[in-house]
Every structure is written in structure tokens, then in C-alpha cells.
Amino acid sequence: MRSVRRYLAEGEAGLVDRRAENGRRKVDDDYLAALVRALGDRASDHGWPRPTWTRELLVLTLRARTGTTVSPSTMSRALHEVGARRGRPRPTVLCPLSASQRRRRLAAIRDALAGAGADDVVVYEDEVDIHLNPKIGWDWMPRGLTREVVTPGKNRRAYLAGALDARDGHLLVVEGERKSARLFVDLLEALRRRHPTARRIHVVLDNYKIHKGLQAIAWLRDRGARFRLHFLPPYCPDENRIERVWLDLHANVTRNHTRRTLTWLLHDVRRWIRRRNAQTAAASRTAA
Predict the structure, then answer these.
(1) How many of the other CB atoms lie within 10 Å of CB of 185?
(2) What are the residue boundaries of the structural domains of the chain, listed by start?
(3) Which residues share a beta bridge with 161?
(4) Listed residue (232, 197, 236) closest to 212, CA to CA
(5) DSSP string, 110-152
(6) What is the fold of 99-287?
(7) b/e map 152-183, b = 16+ CB within 10 Å
């Protein structure tokens, strides 16, 4: 060991920390700031033939930007220091409306909901697919072990249509074998039964075709006088609050699941929804 050799050769003086003589720290605040800026781009934005970053490409890019050369292991420490993480980017589709059109439509929906009275109900609606073949996602596991998720092979599906109450957080769900206008109409029927005295039932939803089909239009004409549909701008899932619930459902039930039949998987889904609604109701009572 170098420390032992220095002690034997120089005594206690050999144990003095000599790193202060190394000069300026390479990974200083300016270097870390340049790293954060680079991570905001894609690697291809800096002339590399691939879109994703590696430590080695970051080392080369930062050397060109700052004149400082570090090793890949030092880059790992720098990435940790700025709080960077390796994750899966979220796919998204751009809204075809202009920014001003999008803002106007969202503002109109917010104004309509803000004017909802005490006798009105406001819900956020959306559908979700339940696949027997499990969604594969991140999980913690011991070093050297790759956990396996057995898939049934032949996929089967069920579909849920849900309505998230904006005031009490209750999730109302109906099930179907197809994602069709019938599924949407069944949810509207369930809302009508759940809120028989509501003056208006405001439904915030996306532009999926089953929401605008002839069956839905006919039902709204004949039995939906109390309903008001508020269509979000295209491809704006972040504006629909129920999307967060579906993400939680997948994280807690369907991702990496081990069920071999759709019947048991749906049993788990229903149990999770019941538990969630019970917890939400308890939190609402506590807050009141």
C-alpha cells in the first residue's frame, strides 16, 4: 500500500493529504453546469451518430465544451452529483392544434368546470386496456439475477372505461370485452344511476372515436340531457386526471404480473379499485 510505503519512508509526514497540491478540481461547478446542459439535448444534437448518451460520449462532448478530460468512472460520479438517472423516455404525440388554439380550448373547459354548481358533477373519463400478457417494467432485484416474467403467450384482453370524480376522487368503472361505443355508453349509464339528482354531469374526455360515434350520439340525444361533454385538445393526456390513475393501476397490478388467466387478473384489478376507492373515501372524511 502506498500509504504504508510513504510512512515507512517519511514517517508521519508521509501521511499528510497531498491532494491539495493537485491543482484545480476538474469536475467543478462550471463542468457540472455544462453537463446538465448537454443532458438536456440528445447526443445526435452534438454531431454523434446515435441519439442516446453514453458516459464515453459525454466525456468527449464535455471535453470539447470545457477543455477538461475526465474518465468514464469520473463521469459516473458527475452524473450522480447532478442527480441524473437512466430511464425510459416517455413517448408522446404532438397536438395538431396551434399553441393558441390549444390554450383557448383548455381555457374554455376550465371556465365551464369553474362554473359548475354544487348540484353538478365533474368527472374525467378514459378507457384502459388490461392485457393478459404482462407489461414489463422496472423492478429491484439482486445483483447477478435477472427476474423472469412468464407470459401466457396468446394474449387476451379486457377493457375498462372509468370516470374519476373531480371532487371526491371516486373511480367509477365498467368493463367490456371490446373498446367500443357500447362500453362508453355503459359508463354514461352508470354515471346517470350514480348521480340521479345531479343537475349537470360534466364529462372531460379525449377525442377517441367511440366518444363521438352514432351510438353515443343517439344515447345522449335520448337519455343524456343532463350530460355535458368537454373534449380535450388532441393528444393532451396530461390534462386528463384519470390518466394518473391508470398509471397507478398498471404499476400496482398489471406490470410484471404473474396471473395465468384473465379472470384472475381482472379479480386483482377490481380489488385494487375497491381498495383505492376506500382509501380515497377515508381521506375525504378525514379532510372534512
Answers:
(1) 21
(2) 2-81, 99-287
(3) 127, 174
(4) 232
(5) HHHHHT--TTEEEEEEEEEEEESSPBP------TT--------
(6) Nucleotidyltransferase; domain 5 (3.30.420)
(7) eeeeeebbbbbbbbbeebbbbbbebeebbbbb
Listed in sequence order, the residues at least 6 apart from 159 whose beta carbon sits closer than 8 Å to its beta carbon are 127, 128, 129, 130, 175, 176, 177, 178, 179, 183
Q: Are 38 and 57 in contact (CB under 8 A)?
A: no
For the beta sheet containing 157-165, the strands, ordered from the edge strand earlier in sequence to the opposite edge, are 171-176, 157-165, 120-131, 200-205, 227-231
Non-local (6+) Cβ contacts of 8 within 8 A are: 14
Element (DSSP H or E) covering residue 268: helix 262-287
Distance in angstroms (rounded) separating the CA atoms of residues 202 and 28: 54
* Residue corresponding to grid cell 348521480: 195
CA–CA gap between residue 135 and residue 128 (Å, rounded): 13
What is the chain's pLDDT, residue by residue, as a tens digit (288 residues)? 677 777 777 777 666 665 555 556 789 999 999 999 999 999 999 999 999 999 999 999 999 999 999 999 999 999 999 999 887 777 777 888 898 999 999 999 999 999 999 999 999 999 999 999 988 888 888 888 888 888 877 889 999 999 999 999 999 999 999 999 999 999 999 999 999 999 999 999 999 999 999 999 999 999 999 999 999 999 888 899 999 999 999 999 999 999 999 999 999 999 999 999 999 999 988 876
Enter the C-alpha cell of residue 193: 344511476
Per-residue DSSP letters for 33-49? HHHHHHHTS-GGGGT-S
Question: Would you list the DSSP string of 3-59?
Answer: HHHHHHHHGGGGGS--GGGG-S-SS-HHHHHHHHHHHTS-GGGGT-SSSS--HHHHH
Q: How far apart are alpha carbons 84 and 32 in whole angstroms?
A: 11
Q: Dihedrals φ, ψ of 222, to 5°?
A: -85, -35
Q: What angle do CA 207, 208, 213 make, to 5 degrees?
A: 100
